[in-house]
Task: structure prediction
Amino acid sequence: MRRKKRFTVVIPSYWGRRSGEPFNEEDAVYDHPTPLDGEGTLARALESVRLLRHRDFRVVVLGVATHPDLEAEVGEKLKGITAPFKRYYPLALLTHGHEEGLRRVLAEKGKERHARFVSLRGYSNIRNFCLIAAHLTGAEAAVLFDDDQVYEDPYYLEKVEENIGEEREGGLVLGMAGYYVNPDGSYRVPPNRDPVMAEWPAVERMNRAFDIIEGGGRLKRTPWVFGGNMVIHRDLFKRVAFDPLVTRGEDIDYLVNAKFLGHHFRLDNTLWIRHLPPPKTSPLWRRFREDLDRFIYSREKLRLQEPADEGAGMVGVEELDPYPGRFLRDDLEDLIFRTCVLMAMRYLSQGDARGYEECMNNILRARSPEWMPENPFLHYMEWRRGWEDFMREAEDIPGLRSVVEGAFDDRG
Result:
């Protein structure tokens, strides 16, 4: 009889300024934070969790504000949303107040050096907070889920349980990927017919990468993973952290970081989630800047890699084909240049001088990434070693666990 496993489902929820309020340059940038005067999608996501039949899981919601001035209000807003669901399953809301609580415990115990790992600002830091929450709740695996998604398969966690932490052909399964199903029932990305993106073959390469969903057996190695449908075993998340310098695409970057240590994510083609994202609100030039940053950074990390662990070997870019591998090769700057020129022409035709200027800045940014450390690989490995120390010591600091466990008892 298969041993039952305990999971923690962790759901970040992003909230920003009220509708109509101007963007503040100090605001953290996320794809589609919910305005504080809006309803958002979190309640819908939490309602879908009620479908899950597994008997040993807990849910942690992370309340994320785009600016420190909004933190208290976001916390109160989310208390009202999450409270009704506490009657159905164990649920904790962790806010920026809990972030400060964890940092305070570390300071009291003389472990201030670990405070850098505790942050609710930026995608990678928030994903690391997901792992911290899973660790402090004693989960065998962290099940990452986003609030713009819904579960429709009641046996989702049973499917996870079948393989996570188990020896399968090709080795121990410590990382699993599922896929997204669109509102129309498809899993491929709709064709991008915008001429501005004609020189940026992301959609084509992603759809080619999705061919593995139908081909072959149920479990297979994958070059991609979705952050909202991602399962990480504790033996992996205690060693591998998300890279805080990656502001977009942190999910695939995590997959690559795991590869550096010899661990390979497996796609389970029965593990699907319905994805219902609201429209993205940030300007195209800003979203493209995040893409060019992630690919330039990831390519440099691959180029400068060294053997990271005994028997781990080196990660070749071909292992990441067709996506993201297409954007990790020597012609990346040319792809960026051509796309930025097309984008700039669009902004110019619309009389948008700011958009035009930022497209030109993107070209310069790609050719001279001054924000990047001299050696991204060594920089990340230093961070990872510190993370591993933090994960090991966190188990012996009871005050940390108390901060999280207390949130399950808080009835708002």
The CA atoms of residues 192 and 199 lie 11 Å apart. The first strand starts at residue 7 and ends at 16.
